[in-house]
Design goal:
This is Helix-turn-helix domain-containing protein. With about 325 residues, the protein is an alpha+beta fold. The chain contains 12 helices and 10 strands. The longest helix has 19 residues. The protein is elongated.
Length: about 325
Amino acid sequence: MASLENGPLKETIDSLFMYKRYVDDTFIVCDENTSTAELLRIFNGSHPSLLFTTEEESDSSFHFLDVKLDRRENGTLLRSIYRKPTFTGQYTNFNSWVPLGRKRNLIHSLCSRIRKICSPETIDRELDNRRSNLLNNGYPTRFIERNIKKESTLRQVTVPKKKLFMSLAFKGDTISELIKNRLSKCIKRTFPAADLQLVFTSRNMIRQNVKDRLPLLSTSMCIYSFTCSCGAVYIGRCKRNLRKRVAEHYPVWLMKGERRTAKSSICDHLLESGHLAPRDSSFKVIYMAKSNRSKSLRFLHLCIAEALAIHEQKPILCVQKRFVKPLSLPWS
């Protein structure tokens, strides 16, 4: 758009009373002798990939983005807030589990928007509309009046301060405000060069994971254990799908009663002892690596978790017999 405004459309734009653009929305003021159809044709012919549409004033009223413009009798424009027909007046309810600071900032932002956009004649009317909307959303009158009169002012910082971020659990408006005030006073008194940025967080009331849990054998990146009917325990780690690892420990031919070469400690134990261990109930996951970590870090956590579990439980099936050779003495 900038290249078109400085190129083929420059002469047309210069002939207009006013031309303003925000991203792809333009606001044009022209005299009554200017043909809007011809103006639209010129703009659409400036580039083959662009197609402009027009919206003209109706009943001396027009809106551009969130600004509503009404023509006065003397020809000047009266500014107010424009709201779409789908606007319901719903904001964050005062009784919702949200920190009080966010509810306070909601009023500040709404009032700041009114004071920046509206003409002096429409400010009081728009503020009354906001009061009505906030009352319908459960906001107390005293809370509204106390915050609606405050105009946000930017603090002029002469000496840059170091931002200190702190996250705390949200336990309600009263407790959160008390903690915020006390911490701010303590930090200001003991560390004046710090700018405390306190953030209150809350757990999701509806968990993000609304899907059904995956079957146990579909788990990956985990530490698992096997418990035989005799009490013998095996602990291992698995990066792949656990179903494949269980099939290696407990092959199909073992369930059929066949005898072949064992390739794992669990299979070797079941062959030698003849014990029966249900495949589904004997295996269980004792640790899962967090999915929001990198693959290398998750594997490192698995190695550490496996070593700690083996050190604590000392499972007898984790001894690798194939690496142990019987002691043979020359005189025996």
